[in-house]
Design a protein that fits this description.
CATH topology of the largest domain: TIM Barrel
Shape: globular
Number of strands: 16
Distance between the termini: 16 Å
Structural class: alpha/beta
Number of helices: 10
């Protein structure tokens, strides 16, 4: 048994409790509150004068498949010989020894999505994992956690250089539609008794069955609307990734209850699709009624900058509680793991971060990180 005492606990789901006790039995939270009996044999961590949040969550990274400091030998996020790769799985390329995973823990980030890159029209399956562990299979929270697709500049630039499609945005949309129709036909043939398997089609049938969302890399407003159009046509789940110009069509996103994972905002306008970048995007989407999360897109922005993304969004008008939700509970809900993580509630995984001050202050340090009840 582990007891954390005396801290200011930001439960996210049920407000803030000062001078609280969090009681952990093995991997789960068993009690949260001010008047909780601590078993005599419990290990006690004093959090007097400190603040506690759930483990932070980043909904969009390339951790483990785009390793830092190793060069091309471990850059595995894009298969650039085929624009259509729904059968690929990020989990098969993740190296749990990536230094970025240690950085995540040092920054209080305990859950992430690892997703294929955006150089293919269909990049493959994302996976939700904890950031602590030595065997990736033991770190998984949800597999698969989505199907990565990409609109706009990235796939066009890659394949035009190879003199292969896509070379236009129309082609990107057409290729996605063709694959979804092929998956519909495959599902019908399987239902009729066909025995031959097709891994590409099996992966897309999960999308058609609304088991996983399309996770659509889309910065520009027109690309976002194309992603929405396709999702409407096929009645499939959609998550908008980056959504840089999402504020320009916020009502279109909101009326369909499509979530947006926004960022990284701490970047220059290095390409056309980023010309509308503003720290106001999270606040504007929230005001329109869109459920949001904030992301680093590690390694494009280091994973331990997630709190800074939230702080800058707050400075630009995002309410403090929503900023916290955007890197905890709402992030967990968007990736489909909120039954396990994202808030400090009885029954959830004991993933906790203790700070020596305001979690959103740049001078604040992470002092303790707990994952599955273990002090890391």
């Amino acid at each position: 048994m582990l007891a954390i005492t005396g801290g200011t606990v930001h439960t996210v789901s049920n407000g803030t409790i000062k001078g609280a006790v969090i009681l952990i039995d093995q991997t789960r939270i068993v009690a949260v509150g001010q008047h909780i009996s601590i078993p005599a044999d419990a290990t006690v961590i004093s959090a007097e004068g400190k603040e506690i949040t759930p483990g932070l969550i980043d909904c969009h990274t390339h951790l483990g498949i785009a390793e830092e400091g190793v060069g091309q030998a471990h850059i595995d996020k894009n298969e650039v010989n085929s624009p259509l790769c729904p059968h690929l799985r990020a989990i098969d390329a993740i190296n749990p020894e990536d230094q970025g995973l240690s950085d995540a823990l040092c920054g209080g980030v305990t859950t992430i999505i690892v997703t294929p890159g955006s150089e293919n029209v269909i990049g493959g399956q994302s996976v939700a994992i904890k950031t602590y562990g030595t065997v990736i299979d033991h770190m998984v929270l949800r597999q698969p956690a989505g199907m990565k697709i990409a609109f706009g500049e990235n796939p066009i630039q890659i394949y035009m250089a190879k003199d292969r499609p896509p070379s236009t945005r129309m082609t990107i949309a057409g290729m996605i539609r063709e694959q979804l129709v092929a998956a519909q036909n495959y599902a019908r043939s399987v239902a009729a008794g066909a025995e031959q398997r097709d891994l590409r089609m099996e992966a897309l049938v999960q999308v058609l069955n609304r088991e996983i969302p399309l996770r659509a890399h889309a910065h520009a407003a027109d690309d976002i609307m194309t992603a929405i159009r396709i999702a409407d046509e096929f009645n499939i789940l959609l998550t908008l990734e980056h959504a840089t110009a999402g504020h320009k069509i916020a009502n279109e996103i909101a009326k369909r209850s499509i979530p947006a994972v926004i960022g990284p905002s701490i970047t220059a306008r290095v390409k056309v699709e980023l010309k509308d970048r503003t720290y106001r995007t999270p606040a504007l989407l929230h005001e329109a009624g869109v459920k949001i999360a904030l992301i680093t897109d590690h390694p494009f922005l280091p994973i331990n900058s997630l709190r800074l993304e939230a702080a800058l969004a707050m400075k630009a008008g995002l309410p403090r509680q929503v900023a916290l939700e955007a890197i905890t509970l709402h992030a967990a809900q968007i990736i489909g793991v909120s039954n396990r993580v994202g808030s400090i509630d009885v029954g959830k995984d004991a993933d906790l971060v203790i700070f020596d001050g305001d979690p959103f202050a740049i001078s604040t340090h992470v002092t303790t990180v707990i994952v599955d009840g273990k002090t890391i």
